[in-house]
Design goal:
single chain, mainly alpha
Length: about 210
C-alpha cells in the first residue's frame, strides 16, 4: 500500500507540473506562431497524455497485482521436515519397550508407571501432530486423517492403563496378550502417520516393515 501511495503521489506531481508550465509556454508565442503550431501542440499534448495514462495504468496495475496476489511473489510452500515431527517417530519406537513390559504380568506395575504418566498428558501427541499438519494444510487439521491416526494411537495406548489395572475384566496372561495387541495396533497407526507425513526418511520404511 505504501508503494502504491508513493507511486500515485509521484504521478500526481507529474500531472500538476505539466498543467502548470503549459500556459506559460503558450503565452510567449505570437498569435501567428500559435495558430500555425496549434495542431502540433494538440497532437503533442495528446501524445503526452496518452503516455502518462499508460505509465499510470501500468504502475497501478503492477502494484495492485503484487498486493492482491502476494502468494505469487512472496509465499513459499512448507516442506515437511523430520525435525518437525520427530516426537511421533520417537513415540513409535519407544513403544517396543512398552510392549515388552505389558506382555509380562510380572512387569505390569512398571508398565503402569509409564502409562499413568502418558495419560496425564493424553492430548500431547495429537496436538503435536496437529501442529505439524497445520504447517502444510493451514486449515481443517483436526479433520485430517493423519491427525486421526495419532489420536487413535494415543487413545489405544492410554486404554492399557485400565486394562492392566484389571478394570476391563482381563487379568494375567489374557490382559498381557490384549495389551500387546493394543500397543502393536498403536504402532501401526503411528506408522501410517509417518508414511503419510510427507517426510522422506528410510527409518520410517524400516519401522513400518517391522511393525506391519
Amino acid at each position: 500500500m505504501k508503494l502504491l501511495n508513493v507511486t500515485l503521489a509521484g504521478l500526481a506531481l507529474i500531472v500538476k507540473s505539466t498543467q502548470a508550465f503549459a500556459p506559460q509556454m503558450i503565452s510567449q508565442r505570437t498569435s501567428s506562431t500559435l495558430s500555425m503550431s496549434s495542431s502540433n501542440e494538440q497532437s503533442n499534448l495528446s501524445t503526452r497524455r496518452s503516455i502518462l495514462q499508460t505509465v499510470t495504468t501500468g504502475a497501478i496495475l503492477s502494484t495492485t497485482t503484487a498486493t492482491a496476489f502476494p502468494s505469487m511473489a512472496f509465499a513459499a510452500e512448507y516442506t515437511p521436515k523430520f525435525d518437525d515431527m520427530k516426537q511421533i517417530y520417537a513415540l513409535a519406537v519407544t513403544l517396543d519397550s512398552l510392549k515388552v513390559k505389558v506382555g509380562d504380568p510380572d512387569q505390569f506395575e512398571t508398565a503402569l508407571v509409564g502409562l499413568r504418566e502418558f495419560n496425564r498428558a493424553a492430548n500431547f501427541y495429537p496436538g503435536y501432530a496437529k501442529n505439524f499438519i497445520l504447517k502444510s494444510v493451514k486449515a481443517s487439521a483436526d479433520a485430517d486423517p493423519r491427525v486421526g491416526y495419532v489420536r487413535q494411537a494415543s487413545s489405544t495406548i492410554g486404554s492399557c492403563q485400565e486394562l492392566l489395572e484389571g478394570r476391563q475384566g482381563l487379568f494375567g496372561a489374557d490382559a498381557a496378550k490384549e495389551a500387546v495387541s493394543r500397543v502393536s495396533k498403536a504402532q501401526q497407526l503411528l506408522g501410517k502417520f509417518l508414511m503419510e507425513s510427507g517426510v522422506e526418511d528410510s527409518r520410517f520404511k524400516d519401522f513400518v516393515a517391522t511393525h506391519s
